[in-house]
Amino acid sequence: MQDSREKSYMFNFMDTPGHPCFSDEVTAAMRLSDGAVIVVDCIEGLTFYVERLITQAIREQLPIVIVLNKLDRLVLELKLPPSDAYYKIKHTLDDINAVIKRLECVHQGRQPFICPLKDNVIFASTLFSCCFTIGSFALRYSKN
Asked: What Å distances lie between residue 64 and 48, 113, 136, 144, CA to CA?
């Protein structure tokens, strides 16, 4: 993968099953990784399994990126107005940050809090075929 300065990067993605029965595979994959991308359903929010993934990533001292997936469900299923959708997303991120804060006291790591302005949150919708950060969305919007 080449950036705008023609510098190349190599990425190896290890997709692990999203089911608690495969926690051994997740642990092994995290020990081989330089970072963790954790996909969270924006309606389900912080589940027991997501909390276990965050715990494991912090234990392995990996930087974390959260992907808030299925944004379309907020609009199509729950029929939330924009302000309510914002508060639902904020609540999910606050729950994730509470877990990180609690774990940081135990593991004394340096995991930054999850915040869209820190570029460690990605918003996605498979139904609408989109994936963006706040920065990429602002750049695209400013061009229009």
From this structure: 17, 9, 19, 31
Residue 88 CA: distances (Å) to CA of 31, 68, 80, 94: 32, 11, 9, 10
Predicted pLDDT at 3: 67
- The domain 20-143 is placed in CATH, from the list 3.40.47.10, 3.40.50.300, 3.20.20.70, 3.40.630.30, at 3.40.50.300
* Tens-digit pLDDT profile for residues 85-98: 999 999 999 999 99
Alpha-carbon gap, residue 39 to 26, rounded angstroms: 13
pLDDT of residue 7: 80
Distances (CA, A) of 54 to 20, 39, 105: 13, 11, 14
